[in-house]
Amino acid sequence: MPDAAADHKPRLAVLTGAGISAPSGLPVYRGGDGMWDRNPDIEALTTASRWHGKAQQAWGHWNELRRAASVARPNPAHEALAAAEAHFDVHIATQNIDGLHGRAGSGNVAELHGNVFHTRCSGKACHARHGAWFDDDLHESVPTCPHCGRIARLDVVLFGEQLPARKMRASIDAARHADVWIAIGTSGTVYPAAGLIDFCRPDTVRVLVNAQPWTDNASAFEQEVLGDAAAVLGDTLRELHAAVLR
């Protein structure tokens, strides 16, 4: 375990995926009963080059995501990460768009794939100028941008789009400086987020908390905790903090 000076908190960098929100009742995307496995047509509605011609259907799908996220509540895994800020300097990079980390009280969260409660203009120049806006409405008709009148869209990263550069840089920097790097509830197959582990120092403690092992990069972890994140994460974080301070 790396040494941690007594006068500062050890640095904890976290990557989370759909598995951490599954105990809150939100669906996972891949594997078994995953959303994309059950309905392959969703791919067209979540692809940057294809959704615009199916805007009404896309908003129907986005409304479903927004409705589900609005009734979901942070579970003990989200709460454990928020509580960990008392003992760690925490940076969370999440692939989730549900906003549950922030609602649990975590203060340093990079939402790599966006947020389901933000809407933006579909025009790149207009979005770059004005940004996204908070929006928790369920739209029966396709909304429009209040600035230019173009079709509005959910402010999430679609297939074929790049992750926000500033948020990715912050997450890479967190991985490079981490005493502990932990992946929670993610398959490790979605890049570039899954590649954050490769930026860790050789002495960084790397831990997986997931329902099953990673098929790729599995050898990179010193510890695997297999199970429901809501049930096991709190104890895992307490054990990691004690070990880092030894």
From TrEMBL:
Gene3D superfamilies in the record: SIR2/SIRT2 'Small Domain, TPP-binding domain
Entry protein name: protein acetyllysine N-acetyltransferase
Active site: H113
PANTHER family (alphabetical): NAD-DEPENDENT PROTEIN DEACYLASE, NAD-DEPENDENT PROTEIN DEACYLASE SIRTUIN-5, MITOCHONDRIAL-RELATED
Keywords, sorted A to Z: Metal-binding, NAD, Transferase, Zinc
Organism encoding this protein: Actinoallomurus vinaceus
Pfam families membership: SIR2 (PF02146)
Regions annotated as coiled coil: none
Deacetylase sirtuin-type domain mapped to chain residues: 1-246
Residues bound to Zn(2+): C121, C126, C145, C148
This enzyme's EC code(s): 2.3.1.286
